[in-house]
Amino acid sequence: MIPRSLKLCDATILDKPSSRNLMGVSRTHLRVIGFLLCLSSGIALAEERLPTHFWRQPLAPQGEAPRTWSTEERSLAPESCGGCHSDKLEEWRTSFHAKAFSPGLVGQLLTYDAGDSAACMECHAPLAEQRQAFEAARRRAETEPGAGHGLADAGNSCGGCHLRGHRRFGPPQRETGAVGQSDASAPHGGVMRVPEFEKSEFCAACHQFPQSQAINGKPLENTLVEWKQSPAARSGTTCQSCHMPERKHLWRGIHDPDMVRSGLTPEFVAEHATARFRLTSTRIGHAFPTYVTPKVMMKGLALDEAGEPVPRSEVSHVIQRQVESVDGDWIERSDTRLLPGQSAMLEIAWPKSGRVKFWLEIYPDDFYHQHVYSNLLRELAADSAAAKLIAEADRTAQGSHFTLFETTVQRP
Ligand code: HEC
Ligand code: HEC
Ligand code: HEC
Ligand code: HEC
Ligand code: HEC
């Protein structure tokens, strides 16, 4: 039932069986293992490389930990890692990776069988032990409602990126750049340090959907391909450079006003006949925004002499990739996203007052609110556990918008 791997130039992409179309966005799931397999094809696997199976999803169970290890060293819970790596735990906790086993996801999983749930969990709670924990919690739920989902609730946690067979993998040592296996007498048997942790391809397992799922030539999430074509890739600026500066585990993105501001340059120009708002993507290593779920709107309006909005004077420009499912087939309605270096412009004629206001609105979860959750809420029984979670996710999605760059421009 699983379509076998397709070979692409730099990627071996395994297609995943298409799960039900409830997610509404990425109806099928995939993973790209490619880069690592390709790197190693024909080359003997050097000791300081990531094993080729590292990102082969679904991940295999970790198995038995060495008997001599303490309970903390054996544990897969992020809180246990945090006993020794407290800075990483504190940072990760604030990130969306920690929240990946979210109400919007679980509300959907409750309507899926174990196989379809497992497919979603490959990116949202990737450890085999998390899949087991979720299925155990599902069986328990009738007797103990609200008891949580054990390790699954940790979402995209430390182990999913750092552990295989209980062995720790990490980037080259910070101070020395050393690679290879460290001292085996250190806690958890030391660590295998490999350069792949510093490469953009490390993120592709979950942030690059396969070309075979393309809509109008582009998969719904095409971030690695966008990055490869960007000036950032040419200058060696990786996903980690922007999303994990100083190796911080924060992964700020479209939900964070400061992060979004850091990637854009707004310009406000008072021309003879009009006022202009130009927005340029200057420090983003992929399309702005990269996913199909956010919506961005450049807005402007005329102000009257008293500084109040002139009725019906509002103008706007939408920055978004709009996709839609028509009779089960995905189509692209439009794609006005900004590629690195590209600009968009909004213009408004001067009103009598000579004053115009501009601003930028960001709706990080627009598609979920407008399409996914509203459809689910129509389909699900209102008092079901799934409907309650989706309603909660919808409230969060509705509330996540924010405004940037609000500016009043005066006619010269
Ligand atoms: C008992 C304390 C302890 C626990 C618990 C622990 N670690 Fe470590 N960890 C260490 C020490 C000490 C080192 C340095 C090892 C070395 O230099 O050989 C280390 C190194 C690492 C490194 C490499 C960092 C570097 O110095 O290059 C990673 C990645 C890592 N641990 C991940 C984890 C994860 C993930 C967990 C939880 C599943 C975890 N550790 C649990 C003590 C711990
Ligand atoms: C095991 C899968 C997986 C891997 C590997 C992974 N991510 Fe993610 N990432 C996710 C998921 C799932 C989410 C969405 C979490 C949520 O909100 O449910 C996410 C969210 C994010 C976000 C936040 C997006 C927002 O909406 O604000 C950023 C930024 C991000 N990831 C960057 C990275 C980078 C950089 C890497 C590589 C170092 C990486 N991710 C590796 C699965 C992964
Ligand atoms: C190939 C990896 C991958 C798979 C498989 C996957 N997702 Fe996601 N999902 C992501 C990433 C990455 C994001 C965040 C995207 C971004 O911000 O750019 C995300 C975001 C989401 C979100 C919005 C954030 C949140 O957690 O509320 C929901 C809901 C979601 N996914 C549900 C699902 C469901 C349901 C499935 C299975 C049908 C699924 N996902 C399978 C990678 C994946
Ligand atoms: C989405 C994948 C991902 C998750 C989840 C994740 N890490 Fe990491 N971690 C990385 C990457 C990638 C690097 C290397 C970043 C770089 O080199 O810029 C790293 C680096 C590290 C380092 C080395 C830091 C240094 O200064 O040398 C430690 C220690 C570590 N992680 C521990 C953890 C712990 C503990 C957790 C959970 C609380 C965790 N990681 C969760 C991907 C992840
Ligand atoms: C030059 C800096 C830079 C690089 C390189 C970069 N990003 Fe981003 N990324 C940003 C900024 C700034 C944002 C916030 C604006 C936005 O959403 O595009 C962002 C947003 C995101 C988001 C939020 C969702 C969305 O729709 O925009 C995800 C997920 C993400 N990046 C993943 C990645 C991955 C994976 C890579 C590597 C393949 C990467 N980024 C490379 C700067 C960068």
UniProtKB/TrEMBL annotation:
Gene3D superfamilies: Flavocytochrome C3, Chain A. Residues 81-140 form the Cytochrome c-552/4 domain. It comes from Bradyrhizobium hipponense. Pfam families: Cytochrome_C554. Residues 170-190 are annotated as: Disordered. This is Cytochrome c-552/4 domain-containing protein. The lineage of its organism: Bacteria, Pseudomonadati, Pseudomonadota, Alphaproteobacteria, Hyphomicrobiales. It comes from the Bacteria. GO terms for molecular function: oxidoreductase activity. The keyword Transmembrane helix does not apply. Keywords: Signal.
